Inverse folding.
């Protein structure tokens, strides 16, 4: 612990972030990115059963995926004070027909958010 | 005076970091398959699909041996071409589940919008894509006539993603050196924020192709180019950490040279070998995950990497810069340890034109 502290002090005194920020020769930059994990399950409000094939999007960051057979989804996205998540039924009558739904979240770095989403059938 | 103090402090830092050797950066050579046949490739990759990828479960078992994880530990997938794996998103998600970050080095050929989104969803945080010149030059080096177009598209997609810590790397050689100023404009136009330049070390396929290697004068031109572009602060242009460059230190990168192989950087290679950077001679491997506990090897082996006194031989024996260079990057050494393959410092001094 003591040696780690000394290391940090020396790092500050040498006016460089080099101790902590570096890149291997043929590697990527390090990642200090501030993202968050959004997971959830989408169900029918009428039956309570999970819904497959719903498009879950984070439009501000052009991310999307589709719910699995058990209605679940999982994605990492940029942390954002007002992160909009949308749920769209784009597969016509396949897996039922549901109304759109939007959710606004405040997502902080490192957050793990779980959503239970109920969609109204058309 | 200011720089002398700074350099002295950095030497203490390097010593301290070497003693503690926290694992901050772990390469996983997840496949040896590749969709290109680059002339300068430092690995022995192959398009042959009979080469097996390392099963994800085997790598995860090695990861799970890490008892004391650094907060900033990143796993960097490399190859071959990582996108040749069909389970790349699953690999990333499993790494994130363990509280680690992940990144990927790619030639960009298979990196389209759909793949980009799937990788972001899986928690990709950093990405490096290679671009080795304009169309003719890049395609020549990459041995593929559409590789430039595909890499350019991938760069546009990645540069537009706020989540990604993204950079472009260029292997500078005799054919593309004169293209660098225009390439700078091209990358700036695509919104690229960071660009890292390498030279090609005579290892792997490049060992048999001296046309790829810069003369000393050309190397100095490269240093001057990087220095001039860094002053503009439009793109974070830097020279890679491949070697010690004497008077150009701090002019061509943010910090003093420090080869962290085996100190902060480890690797698991496709055959299970435990080493440091994947381009280091495999004779320096320290164990194998199919035989040894990965973390125990990291903690107790790697003496060759953490005590570099053995590099004080051959060309390095009498060098006055040894205190700061310490034998240059370890990928510049063969397993016979007789002499350093490339001395970047000497290149900064020489006036040899060949």
């Amino acid at each position: 612990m003591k040696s780690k502290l000394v290391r940090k002090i020396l790092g500050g005194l040498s006016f460089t972030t080099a101790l902590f920020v570096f890149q291997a020769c043929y590697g990527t930059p390090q990642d200090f990115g501030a993202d968050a994990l959004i997971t959830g399950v989408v169900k029918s409000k009428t039956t309570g059963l999970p819904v497959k094939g719903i498009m879950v999007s984070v439009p501000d960051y052009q991310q999307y995926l589709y719910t699995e057979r058990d209605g679940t989804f999982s994605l990492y996205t940029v942390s954002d004070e007002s992160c909009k998540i949308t749920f769209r039924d784009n597969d016509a009558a396949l897996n039922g027909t549901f109304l759109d739904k939007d959710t606004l979240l405040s997502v902080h770095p490192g957050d793990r958010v779980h959503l239970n989403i109920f969609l109204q059938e058309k | 005076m200011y720089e002398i103090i700074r350099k002295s402090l950095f030497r203490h830092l390097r010593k301290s970091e070497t003693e503690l050797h926290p694992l901050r950066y772990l390469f996983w050579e997840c496949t040896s398959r590749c969709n290109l046949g680059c002339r300068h490739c430092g690995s022995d990759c192959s398009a042959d699909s009979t080469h097996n990828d390392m099963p994800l479960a085997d790598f995860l078992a090695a990861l799970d041996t890490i008892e004391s994880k650094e907060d900033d530990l990143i796993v960097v997938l490399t190859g071959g071409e990582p996108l040749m794996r069909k389970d790349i998103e699953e690999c990333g998600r499993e790494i994130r589940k363990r509280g680690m970050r992940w990144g990927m080095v790619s030639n960009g050929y298979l990196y389209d919008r759909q793949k980009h989104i799937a990788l972001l969803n899986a928690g990709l945080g950093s990405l490096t894509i290679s671009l080795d010149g304009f169309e003719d030059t890049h395609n020549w080096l990459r041995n593929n006539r559409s590789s430039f177009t595909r890499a350019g598209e991938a760069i546009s997609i990645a540069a537009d993603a706020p989540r990604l810590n993204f950079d472009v790397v260029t292997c500078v050689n005799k054919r593309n050196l004169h293209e660098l100023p225009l390439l700078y404009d091209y990358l700036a136009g695509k919104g690229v924020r960071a660009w890292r330049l390498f030279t090609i070390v005579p290892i792997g396929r490049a060992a048999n192709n001296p046309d790829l290697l810069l003369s000393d004068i050309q190397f100095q031109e490269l240093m001057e180019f990087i220095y001039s572009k860094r002053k503009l602060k439009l793109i974070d242009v830097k020279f890679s950490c491949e070697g010690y460059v004497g008077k150009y230190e701090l002019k061509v990168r943010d910090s003093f040279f420090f080869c962290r192989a085996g100190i902060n950087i480890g690797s698991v290679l496709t055959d299970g070998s435990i080493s440091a950077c994947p381009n280091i001679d495999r004779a320096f491997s320290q164990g194998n995950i199919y035989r040894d506990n990965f973390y125990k090897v990291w903690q107790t082996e790697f003496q060759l990497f953490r005590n570099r006194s053995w590099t004080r031989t051959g060309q390095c024996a009498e060098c006055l810069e040894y205190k700061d260079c310490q034998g240059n990057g370890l990928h510049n050494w063969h397993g016979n340890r007789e002499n350093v393959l490339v001395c970047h410092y000497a290149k900064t001094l020489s006036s040899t034109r060949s």
Notes: Residues 177 and 221 of chain B are 9 Å apart (CA to CA). Chain B has a mean pLDDT of 92. Chain B is about 30% helix and 15% strand.
